[in-house]
Each structure stands twice: as C-alpha cells, then as structure tokens.
Amino acid sequence: MMRKLIFILVLGMVNEFNSQIKVEEALKTFKEKYPQEKIHLLFDKKNYLTGENIWFKAIVFEGYNPSTISTNLFVELYDQNKTQITKTFVPLLNGKGGGSISLPETLKENVYYIRAYTTWMTNFSEDFQLIRPIEVYNPSSPEKLVKDSLSAWHAEAYPESGTFIEGIPTKFAVRLRSKGFTPSKWSGYVVDTEKPDTKMISFDGFDENVGAFELTPQNGKKYRVIVFDSNGAKQSIDLPDVAVSGVHLQVKSNSEAVAFTLTGKNLSASQGYKIIGTMDNQLVYKAIAAKISGQTLSIPADRLVNGILQISIFDDHENLLVQRLCFVQHELLKIKKPELQSLSLSESPRASNSFSITKDDSESDYSVLVMDGNAQSSEDDNNLLSTLWLTGDIKSNISSPARYFDKNSNGEALDALLISEKWKRFDWKMLTLGNFPMIKNKPENYISYKGKVSVLGNPAPNADLNLVFSTTDKSPSTAFHQVKTDDKGFFSLNGLVFEDVLKVSYQLNSEQKIPKEQVQVIFQPNFDFIPYKGNMPESRYLLTKRDANEKLPDEIAGYVTNKNIQKTLREKVTDIEEVKLTGQKKNLTKTLNATLSSSLFRSGNEVVFDFVNDNNNVASVNILQWLQGRVAGLDIQSQGGNYVPMLRGSRVGIYVDEMPADAGYISSISVADIAMVKVIKGYFAGGFGGGNGAIAIYTRRGGMTGSANSNQPSMLKKISLKGYPKDTPFINPDYSNEEFRKIPKDARSVLYWNPFLEIQREPAKVQFYNNDEARNYRIIIMGYDKNSYMPVYYNEVVK
C-alpha cells in the first residue's frame, strides 16, 4: 500500500470551519468503498496481420499497487463502428493475468480497438477502462492504412491552477491536440493585443503534446498566444481576461519536496483556508491557513510515492477555490530493475542465446519479452510506467506518454502537461454533497455459477446434491463436491478456475431414492461481458485505395513473412507432438499387450485396441458393435438378437481373457470393464489349429486407471459448464530439434514470449533462438515488487 503522509499544519489563528471534516470524510468514504482500478496490457508486438494471434499480459492496479479486487479480466476486440469482433476473459491472480485473442482472417485492413476492463470498473466512468488502438494489416484488402497527415492541430492555453490575476506571475501550459498527429517541432510567442507585432515572450514546444511560458499580467490588458509549426500552420489563442481578485496556486516539485505558494488579491473576508493534498484518492497532506499571504510551504517528497499529487484549496465553507496537479519526485523514479546475469548472445543466424534473471523473493513471476532489436513494441508509446503513473488516471489523448518516464525524460514537460489536466476520478462537489457512485456490478470470485435443483419441475428446497466434476483436458481429473440448496432450491458454485469445459454429473442425495430422470439441475453463470456504451476513439489513420500492383512496404512484407513462419512453427510443433504421442501410445500399448495376452494369443497379423492408454470414446453398449468398420474385412452381423463377428465371410471365435465365449455373453460385459481388444486375422496358436482368426477381449485388472474411463457414459446425469477460453500457446522454436531446422526463412520479430516466468526459487534462465538477421535484442521484463511497492521494469536493447 502507499506510504501515507498525513501532514497537518496550522498556519496562524483560525476559527473552526463550519463543516471542518466534511471534505476529509467524503474522501475517506470514496477511497474505502469505491477503490479505483486501472489496467496495463503488454502485447507480444505492436501491430498485427489478419489471422494472427494477439498475446497479452495484464497487470491490474488499484492505485499504485496490484489489485486484489477483481479476479477476472474481460478483453474485447471492436472495429471503428463499435462492432464486436471477438472476446475472451482470463483469471487474475494478485492483479495479474494473461491470454490471447485471435484476429479473423477475413478482417479488412484498418485500426481496431482492444477494450479491457473488470466488472468492478464498470461501476465508474468508462473513460478509465482501457481502450487500445491496434493497427491490423491485410495485403489483400482493397484499402490500406496511412497516417492522417491532413487533420489540423489546434492549441489551448491553461493558466496554472486555472487563475490569471493582475500582478501575479503565472505559468501557462500550451497543449496541442489533433485527430491525427501533432507536430514534434513547434513554437509560440505572446503579444499584447494592442501591439500585435511586438513579441513579449517566445517559447518552443517541449514535445508534440505541450509547451510552457510565464507571464505577469497587467489589469486592463488582453493577451494572445500565436502558435506555429515548421510547415507554416498557425493558430492564435486569446488568453483569459485578467482578473483583479482571486487566489493563485504555484507549485514546484523537485527531488526534495513539493513546494507550493498561495497568493491572492482583493480577497473577501474568510475565516480560513483548507489545503488538501491527495494521491490515489486518499489524503496525504492537510494544512489550515488563517490567510493567504504568499508564504511558500513544502511537502517532504521522501514521505510520498511517485505519482500524481493533487493540491486543492478550499475556503471556510469548503468551496473549492483552485487546484493543481503535479508529479512527485520525477527526478527519482523508484523502479526496480531486474539484474541480468550470464548474458550469452550471438549474432549468428538461429543461434542459441540465453541470460538469467536474479531470483526475487518478493514476486512469483515476471513477464519476459525478447524481440529483434529493430522491432516495434507495444511499450514504445505507453508502457507500464506511464500507465501506472499517468495514463491510467489521466484519460485525455497524450502522444507517446512513455517518454515522460524514460532516462532522458523532461520533468518540465510533464509538469506543463499536468497543468493542462484535471483529476477526474472524483469531483469534490459531488463528494461533499454525498453523491457517490452507484454500485451495480460487484466483483466476481473467478468463475461462479448459480444452480437450481428441481424435481418434476418443482424446486427442491434444503436438498443435498452430490456433484462430480470431470475435466476434459489431456490430463483428466475428477473431483467430488456436495452442496445444499436453500429454501427455494438454489445453490452457488464460487471460485472455479478451469479452461474450456467442465463436465458435471449430479445426483440428488435423498432417502426417498428419487429416480434421476425426475431430477433437473440448471446452471446460470454469475459473470458476463458488459456492453460498452461510449464510442471508439477517433483513429489517427486514414484508409486509401490500394494499387493492386504496388509493392508491399518492408514493414508489412515482414509481417506476412512472420505470419507464415508462425504457421510453419505450429505445424512443426503439431508434428513433433503427434510423433511423441504416437510413440508413447505405441510403447504403452505394446506393454499392455505383453502383460495381458499369452504367447498363444499373439500374431504378426493382429489389430490391437487399447482402452487403458488410448481414449477411444466408446459410446456403444456392445463392444462387437463398436468394432464395426474399424478393422478391414471384419463384419459384425446381427443373428438371433446377438452380434456375430465375420471375417472375410467366415465366423470367428470370441475369447474373453483367452477363454472361449459366445456372443450372448459378450453383450453382458460393460464396455467400461474392457482393457484391450485384439482382432487376430488367420492362424494363431490359441485357436488350436483354426485358421479363421479370433476376437480376444481382455477385461480390466486392478490398477488400470488409464484415460479410457474418463469419457465413459455415467449412470449419473451430466451437464457442461463453460470455463475460461482455452489459451493458444505461444511457440518459441527450438532449433536443436531437426524439425524446426527445416524452416526455410526465419524473420520473427518476437524471439521469446513468456508472461509467467517463475523467478522465486532460483535464478530464472531465459533461452531463445535468433532469427536469420537479428544483431541486437530488445529485452522487456515486467513485474511488481510487493515488498518495496515498486514496479519492476526493464526495457533495453542489448548486443
């Protein structure tokens, strides 16, 4: 949690306020009952091609710490018309989660939008949900994306603390905005409107967002700012009228303290002023002043955390007079930088590279992304630090906000930017009136379902229900659970975490032995995607007609090559896994055959069906019926109500555990009790000279618990529950495997992706293989140190 500073000063003699604790109590209520979340998404890359997967890692913060409020993150993809393309949701553990979302192959080239939110966030302004534009390219699309260089920019001027008072030096922030792109090089000057040709002050923009100047106004004068760029575009801005009375707040933040000065002119009588400092919607500073005298006060910076501090000034009736945002200790950003060890990098094509990350007892895992050093990253514009400290709370359009937290960042630019912004997580007036947000949607506990039990259509109150949960993945498992319904027949299942589908068998536990056909259980999920009410942001790109004969830009051509590589990688992995699985099954089946069958019942011409190690999805009641069509030459005929096996027109013998059996007896054997079936064609020793072959059935023995039983029909009634969508695995190729070495060209931009690299137990090793061209590598590591309350961040190009 934040290191709190409740620093109270009393300046001079004051009478008590009419409602002295009203502001503080309202703020405390808001912080405790309405905590605010914000989201950062790390994508595996910046731009995509249709048909690709978008892999992401999410960190959800509550203030400046990972959130423990929400356990689910919802992610949706929209086009510019707010048509939803696809969606997914992932579980959050201590605010962290990861997953993927697929781009349909049929998408047209355009800018699309990723929306990410938690259920709790939907109780507040949609402005604070994450909306991230994604450029999606499609070379076969009739139109192509180009940067919007046609939309004009416009400028606005903001006086510090919102007041412009006669004789008080005032700092102005000049903010550029545009639907498209704002100029990186621009300048401005200030004139007295009565002397438009005389430049009073000249200044240059800090960046494409903001610039600043300072002016001491005179009463009766009118001032104007002229802003122009290197292309000749120009705009004039009239500054506010000069006021003859009011309060002005000037703030200067440095590594030692946040110093602020309150000045005023021609103020009406007041019984005192309240100065409130807030960070993350909580009180960190309070001072009470008898009068505004121009005195400078300081808030010790070492008692605060990095982040946005809001200073608000109230009169004795708790009316807000002025306020100002500033950043605390921009010069001393508290960032934990992971230490890389044993760095072994090579420039050779497809060479093995590796490094280790020092273990960290304060964090279970890091997100690690390694890219070709020339590739673009989603962290280029808005990274973990800028989300945590700026854009997670300030939702106006800021060009490349990550610039304000890199090693060459300009603190003056960030300060000017914050002069032009307001804190919109809450409104002081609404809080003090007691108008708090209405909570309609409470956080879920992962996947939750509400169930209703009925017997012959009537609710089953206060009934005991036995539930058997079965997973359907490669390693199936079973769990038992008993629930009791309420007086209306309802019950709840909370805190479920599973992928894809969970099979639930149920049985009413009743002394009356109610037939299962009379019992019905209905499940309703307690979680859902919530529609987006607002509009998508305006795109900074335009669509123009694509010339059928034009050459693809190198960047897009690289995307196409990379997409083909990913397809090949998936195929190679599938082939490798199939070979491994087939080999494994063959070995296990060979062992089973050797264990169950004697030498008399072995033949070089036999077909073996393994029901212990190979899930054959046996849905038939009779095993002979199931064999129909599975063995060449074998025909199962119905004679006298029994199934009779015929092999090439001749009846074959049936054996159960190598003892002769008739077809009638076979119908009494449950398929669930069968371990192996082999069809022997032609002569075999166990037939005592017979040449027609045999069907040998072997029943299960003690300890046989293979996969064959996992999908057998149960005597219990079943229902399926939907879980988290199954994630698409990211493939990091292994060139030590011969199959991967067959790839003709490797132009991957992403060389390694692991959103959950464990780093607690020992130094974590990251190993990856070069593409065909990389000469340097961009390494991004992301996490959070819960002991020191600092973000963990590494984003550098190494050679």
UniProtKB/TrEMBL annotation:
Lineage, broadest ranks: Bacteria, Pseudomonadati, Bacteroidota, Flavobacteriia, Flavobacteriales
Gene3D superfamilies: 2.60.40.1930, TonB-dependent receptor, plug domain
Domain of life: Bacteria
Official protein name in the record: TonB-dependent receptor plug domain-containing protein
